[in-house]
Amino acid sequence: MNKKFMRKVNPYLWIAPSVILMAIFIVIPIFMVFRMSISDISKAGIIKGFAGMGNFQKVMGTPAFKIVLRNTIVWTIFVVGLSTLLGFILALMLNSKFKGRKIARAIIVFPWATTLVVQASAWKFIIDTDYGTLNSLLRTLGIIQANVNWTPTAGAYFAWEIACGIFVTIPFVCFTVLAGLQSIDQSYYEAAELDGAGYFKTLFKITVPLVTPQLTISTVLNIIYVFNSFPIIWTITKGDPANRTDTIVTYLYKLAFYNGKQGQAAAVSVIGFLILLICASLYMISVLRKGDE
Fold first, then answer.
1. Where are the alpha helices (DSSP H) in 127-260?
2. CB of 248 closer than 8 Å to CB of 268
3. What residue ranges of the chain have pLDDT lower than 50?
4. What local confidence, expressed as pLDDT, does residue 1 receive?
5. Beta strands 39-41 and 47-50: pairing type?
6. Do 122 and 111 meet the contact criterion of CB atoms below 8 Å apart?
7. Which is it for the CA torsion 271, 276, 281, 287, positive or negative?
């Protein structure tokens, strides 16, 4: 009786530490954020009472939040979309045989291995008008005679931040897809070659369907990762000027730690969580439906 009981209980004992850690560091903080979002909180972080939907109404009633929400959507779509496309193309190139392939793979992983703060600082230095390496290189090559202001507007700054985001996200997509490409049985390609299928037909009929699981995983993780990305925007612009380059995560940081509006910051966090949950769920459902077809 005891042995049978222990066999049933033993698996749960093994996963118990992980479940406890998840409860402490994930479940409880999520619950606390939801609680804070519907509470009246002092600047000292003390809950004074129930606020209902008041924090959400205050946040969504401000013009800044509309700008922030638009920026977040643009940031996520462009970074995830372009990094997925470029990462897939790069994975196809690295999957083919050529001299120096191992060195090329090592070089590609560098942006992913370096911290985002270092990457963002490097990009900020590159586009600097007075001392930036981009202007220095173009002057050396004789392409320009005087320094160019690469960030004349907030929109230009935001475009450079998106470019930085794409650059640091490509390696993750590339190596995720590359793992899928290397797991494909070569007999599929041999059969397609015998049938006279061209490169693009083979690509869309064999390669893309077989790496769809890897693309799905990388896309969903990237949506979550990019949506919540803080270091790049904060390092380059801190969301300035006037929230023009803010995203949800930098905006809620300002609300909580600059303005002392922790209830409103929690409300923004909950809104971001719900947006991510809906987007990820819809994407997964659409992919699963296509797979069933």
1. 133-140, 154-182, 186-194, 199-202, 208-227, 231-236, 248-253
2. yes
3. none
4. 52
5. antiparallel
6. no
7. positive
